[in-house]
Amino acid sequence: METRTPLIAGNWKMYKTAAEARETAAQLVNLVTDADGADIMIAPAFTALESVFMVISGSRVSMGAQDLFWEKEGAYTGQISAEMLVAAGCQYVIIGHSERRQYFGETDDTVNKKIGAAIEAGLKPVVCVGETEHERESGQTFSVLDKQVKMGLKGYFVEDLSDLVIAYEPVWAIGTGKTATEEQAQEVHHYIRSLIEDLYGNAFSESMRILYGGSVKPANISALMAMADIDGALVGGASLDSESFSRIVHFKIKK
Ligand code: 13P
User: Fold this and answer.
1) At residue 32, does pLDDT exceed 90?
2) H or E, element range at 105
3) What is the domain-level CATH number for residue 213?
4) What are the catalytic residues?
């Protein structure tokens, strides 16, 4: 029973001014008009959200943000609320990216709070998990993921999570050109789905999308997407160019 629509998402990280982002987004919109087999999302920097929304609105391309803060409003200098993202045109928000965990003090606890804020505002959370190279080499991959998933989702019920997307991004594969093999990724995706099944039941675990991220390129997307539990990709570097991202969006499904 395969009911999961693939999601191909581009995380633009700290690249592109508002004008540059608008230009890339406009090109992408034109390149993917025929790509009806997948949902498509791009996540530009906060400063580019409004200008990107102007060119993607009404198209096949949706928009997400790269982070949010969990409070609704207040004296929190530099922060952006879920409501502000919705007003700017976002449907998705990336939460707990490894770069935020590594450089900006993100923890499973802050991820947990951010998921709640996203759900309450009607944003679809794309929650990132993944092990470091050291954790993989020391045999801790599954225990690390177990903790990230369980603590991130702690306190939420299945009815809260209908829009949840999980992105498995092995830290050692991000921006390094070292992709996990499709078998390595499938093994972890299957593990994550079984964790979700234990927590929330079979029907929900079968409906939830799990994306792979880490050096996804036009050349490796098809092999990854052929795996049973890989439902899409969270793409960094290769999403910055509309042409290469469009080629990823147009992967040939071999399942
Ligand atoms: P790269 O595709 O550049 O490895 O980045 C992956 C990523 O971190 C997406 O969120």
Assistant:
1) yes
2) none
3) 3.20.20.70
4) 97, 169
